[in-house]
Write a structure and sequence with these properties.
Blueprint (H helix, E strand, L loop, with lengths): L4 E4 L2 E5 L10 E4 L2 H10 L5 H18 L3 H12 L6 H11 L6 H33 L5 E5 L14 H10 L3 E7 L6 H13 L3 E4 L4 H6 L5 E4 L3 E3 L4 E4 L2 H10 L4 E4 L5 E2 L16 H4 E2 L2 E2 L12 E4 L6 E4 L2 E3 L2
Parallel strand pairs: 4-5, 4-7, 5-6, 7-10, 8-11, 10-15
Antiparallel strand pairs: 1-2, 2-3, 8-9, 9-14, 12-13, 15-16
Helix pairs in contact: 1-2, 2-3, 2-4, 2-5, 3-4, 4-5, 5-6
The structure holds 5-S-methyl-1-O-phosphono-5-thio-D-ribulose.
InterPro entries: IF-2B-related, IF-M1Pi, IF_2B-like_C, Initiation_fac_2B_a/b/d, M1Pi_N, NagB/RpiA_transferase-like
EC number: 5.3.1.23
Keywords: Amino-acid biosynthesis, Isomerase, Methionine biosynthesis
């Protein structure tokens, strides 16, 4: 299966996630400016995929120019393109460690980041699937997920959807409820597309229906990805995750977070100091390009929220579950 992001003939190639599900197409990004723009527009998105984008961005810069200071300045632009997912700056830093050895070494490091991401997501999601099978007695299982934490959000395989692939292959999955994920609809557009491609039974629901689905006994476990995990186990993820965790706690449902260890930020003591990206007002005041609010309406549009560790059953990386 094609990777979400890769290096091809001297450029970064991505699956264009803005075009999905209407059109499946790839974009070739030949400059750091094009890559930064693609990250900001969410043409490439999801924390682990952003780790790959960060590392490949440094490779692009290193091949374009042999002045180390200029490459570092470009690397900073890439790292600053989006603030919340720690993987982006982590990927940039990884690739920069080889800068003194020349562009080929930087690219080799970036490609190692891509290979690792696929492998670690596969492992982390296998461990999370085991944990969910232990914690939930019902078979087959009904999972609820938020945003897109599938192969499109990673270099390959996925985190929360990686759990779905493992459980589906083992015959333990009944169906998935996929939150549509307002306002950019990563769940309705991308998660639904991946589940349909894989032949997994699913339904999309408005984010506001998730608590009602739990109350009606339609959910056995909630499983999500992460953008940054603090040292105390607090988790920053797509806006709406915190509300889901509160609802899951109310209904005594396991709430499981799956991520590669590149999403853990050991420098961050708690989620209180995560920088939360605020996005453009038009994402809220318009729908499909049409205005849906009165002229001049002000908005609050944070792209992420922080779920406190106490609401999380386990954060599972490739190293295994961390139970707060
Ligand atoms: O704004 P996005 O689409 O980049 O947000 C993505 C998420 O919040 C995902 O849940 C997270 O990155 C984990 S993806 C494996």
């Amino acid at each position: 299966m094609r990777r979400t992001i890769d290096w091809a003939d001297g450029a970064v190639e991505i699956i264009d996630q803005v075009a999905l599900p209407r059109e499946y197409r790839t974009l070739r990004l030949t400059t750091v400016g094009e890559l930064v723009d693609a990250i900001r527009r969410l043409a490439v998105r999801g924390a682990p995929a952003l780790g790959g984008a960060g590392a490949l961005g440094v490779a692009l810069a290193a091949f374009a120019c042999d002045d180390a200071d200029a490459v570092r300045a470009d690397a900073e632009r890439v790292a600053a393109a989006r603030p919340t997912a720690v993987n982006l700056s982590w990927g940039v830093s990884r690739a920069l460690t080889r800068l003194a050895e020349g562009p080929d070494a930087v690219l080799a490091e970036a490609l190692a980041v891509l290979d690792e991401d696929e492998r670690l997501n596969h492992e982390a999601s296998a461990r999370a699937a085991e944990l969910i099978l232990e914690r939930c007695s019902r078979r087959p299982l009904r999972l609820l997920t938020h945003c897109n934490a599938g192969r499109l959000a990673t270099v390959g395989w996925g985190t929360a959807l990686g759990v779905v692939w493992h459980l589906h292959a083992a015959g333990h999955l009944e169906s998935v409820l996929a939150d549509e994920t307002r306002p950019l609809l990563q769940g309705a557009r991308l998660t639904a597309w991946e589940l349909a491609e894989a032949g997994v039974p699913y339904r999309v629901l408005p984010d506001s229906a998730a608590a009602a689905a739990m109350a009606r006994g339609m959910v056995d476990c909630v499983v999500v990805g992460a953008d940054r995990i603090a040292a105390n186990g607090d988790v920053a993820n797509k806006i709406g995750t915190y509300g889901l965790a509160i609802a899951a706690a109310r209904h005594r449902l396991p709430f499981v977070v799956v991520a590669p260890s590149s999403t853990v930020d050991p420098e961050l003591a708690s989620g209180d100091s995560v920088v939360i990206e605020e996005r453009a007002a038009e994402e809220i005041t318009t729908f499909s390009g049409l205005p849906v609010t009165p002229d001049g309406t002000k908005v609050f549009n944070p792209a992420f929220d922080v779920t406190p560790a106490e609401l999380i059953t386990a954060v599972v990386t490739e190293k295994g579950p961390m139970v707060p």
